[in-house]
Design brief:
- By secondary structure, this protein is mostly helical.
- The protein has five helices and no strands.
- The relative contact order is 0.11.
Length: about 80
């Protein structure tokens, strides 16, 4: 998932720029409010329950849902994340 991609990018930086260090930060788990702070656990759960994954995917795969979650995450999380 996203963590594996981030670690892969970090490894490439270390190859191309020896001595490079990095800190991997999951802002949603540390600074998010519900439901964002539960994304990792939810992903693990849904991966083991494909029908629930399918239901949630079809429920949330729309422009109105995207706009709603964007507005909600900005309103509820942006200030705390920017203060980091």
């Amino acid at each position: 998932g996203h963590r594996a991609s981030a670690e892969s990018l970090a490894n490439q930086f270390q190859i191309h720029y020896p001595g490079t260090t990095y800190d991997l930060l999951d802002i949603w788990t540390t600074d998010g409010v519900w439901p964002y702070r539960t994304l990792v656990d939810s992903y693990k759960h849904l991966s083991a329950h494909p029908r629930q994954w399918q239901f949630l995917y079809h429920l949330s795969n729309s422009r109105p849902w995207e706009v709603m979650t964007d507005v909600h995450s900005i309103f509820m999380c942006e200030k705390k994340i920017r203060q980091r």
